[in-house]
Design brief:
3 helices; homodimer; 38% strand; alpha+beta; five-stranded antiparallel sheet; 6 strands
């Protein structure tokens, strides 16, 4: 489970992969494998959530890290690199590094 | 606070706005206002979280809805439309409709 709050001092990565619908499932498998085997073991990794678009053409990873430096250290690790390189043979990658501005809950709570 | 889990049967919208860094703060204000005044009052809205990119060029809304139909009904409401139209005068909009495949937590828990 991943929790989004503006009160935690984390850095958020929202990385959008664009893919042919025929390759979406393969991309999901690759990103699941690399996260499970490597990324979640890296120092400073907090949590992430993998999303597949309903239309089949996108896969988006929402990930929280303690610091930008922790993320960059993981990206320099050669072990997960082959997975990411394989992902880039079937997908385009649009990275984004964010901070949470605000969260909203439904009015009334019913 | 927003909670991401694959076990809730929600639809997730990850909408990425691309903007000149000079206009990022204005876009954040617009999206905050429309969400607070209108979107979070709509039937089926669960939760959302607004993110601003560290480099100033993106603003991303992560939003959870009960169903696609609830979201589409909100989008047809004329009240929030002027806010979204104003946003589109300063930003490009790349929508995405998703389901959560998997969430990951850090290994070891230290």
């Amino acid at each position: 489970m991943t929790t989004i709050s503006k009160d935690t001092n984390l850095v958020t990565f929202i990385n959008v992969f664009t893919v042919d619908a025929a390759n979406q499932q393969q991309l999901v498998k690759l990103l699941t494998r690399v996260t499970d085997r490597f990324v979640r073991h890296a120092p400073g990794f907090i949590s992430s959530a993998l999303h597949r678009s309903v239309d089949g053409t996108k896969v988006t990873m929402y990930a929280q890290w303690r610091t930008i430096e922790d993320y960059e250290t993981m990206r320099k690790n050669p072990a997960p690199l082959p997975y990411l390189q394989e992902a880039l043979t079937i997908a385009k990658f649009e990275p984004g590094m964010y901070e949470v501005v605000e969260t909203f809950v439904r009015a009334g709570g019913t």
